[in-house]
Amino acid sequence: MNEAPLAGRCAVVTGAGRGLGRAEALELARLGAAVVVNDYGRPGRDGSGESSAGPAETVAEEIRAAGGTALVHSGDVSDFREARELVGLAIDTFGTLDVVVNNAGILRDRMVFSMAEEEWDAVIRVHLKGHFNLTRFAAAHWRERSKAAGGPVYGRIVNTSSEAFLAGSAGQPNYAAAKGGIVGLTTSTALALARYGVTVNAICPRARTRMTEDVFAGVGPPAEGLDPLAPEHVAPLVGYLASPAAARINGQVLVVHGGMVAVVERPRVRAQFDCKGDVFGFEELDATLGAHFAERPDGETFAAAEVLGLRRGVG
């Protein structure tokens, strides 16, 4: 029997007490990794309520019951110090850190003209800063290991973005901005860490979880068989990206749901207009750029998302 792909590896999964994070933690454990299950444990999807280790403990027990190894961390990954403690806990306990899955997030949905400053700050803090915090300390660990080893080491980061950054989401300007920022963080970090043997990718999952209960309220699960929106459709891709087999996949954004994986192409220039003189004038811009959009139907700016079969407000 072949050894499990992640045998001897240690993985940290944030937001792993429920939904996608839970499915991802279980999959990484199934592939042989020792898993540090992180979840702040607040009951509200907006991050409200008292924090609790309960959700993380439940998942850790599932892993142990299946013969795996799991440790619980119930800290807030948006806190710089607690994120450092999470990385340190993994290294001190298992002697290594090999995989980071950034998944933790909250929602504070509101139209942009009604959004409060705190609603903006809270979502950016948990999603984007939380991703940065774990990435920062894991990256420093891998850099030091690489310097000590005199060459590349093993490291994998899987970030969680969303289709909201691709297609827009009218009532989620904070969420869409955070998820777009995560893509930027992913591609920048992928370039910075490649020399150390570390890969960094982002997924845009579509799944039925506490975070998306409103979006999929009218789309019920099938009477039989696995729900196409089940988190279990997403977890295998995360496990694969965390494995040695995915060493050549770096800096990518992948949409995943219901038995489909789509590799998102980086933006390309669709049209270019050069001024006839030294500087564009108003009239010339209107005759070129303005005419270009006047000839196209409204909403064509979302054409790339439509090709993927995506729609606003999902994931």
TrEMBL record:
Q: Which domain of life is it from?
A: Bacteria
- Record's SUPFAM superfamilies? NAD(P)-binding Rossmann-fold domains
Which PROSITE patterns is this protein grouped with? ADH_SHORT (PS00061)
Please provide the record's keywords in A-Z order. Answer: Oxidoreductase
Residues annotated as domain Ketoreductase: 9-234
InterPro entries to which the protein is assigned, alphabetical? KR_dom (IPR057326), NAD(P)-bd_dom_sf (IPR036291), Peroxisomal_Beta-Oxidation (IPR051687), Sc_DH/Rdtase_CS (IPR020904), SDR_fam (IPR002347)
Which interval of the chain is the signal sequence?
none
E.C. numbers: 1.1.1.100
* Keyword RNA-binding annotated: no
First-tier enzyme category under EC: oxidoreductase
Among Pfam families, the record links this protein to: adh_short
Protein family (similarity comment): Belongs to the short-chain dehydrogenases/reductases (SDR) family.
- In its UniProt entry, what is this protein called? 3-ketoacyl-ACP reductase
State the species of origin: Streptomyces antibioticus
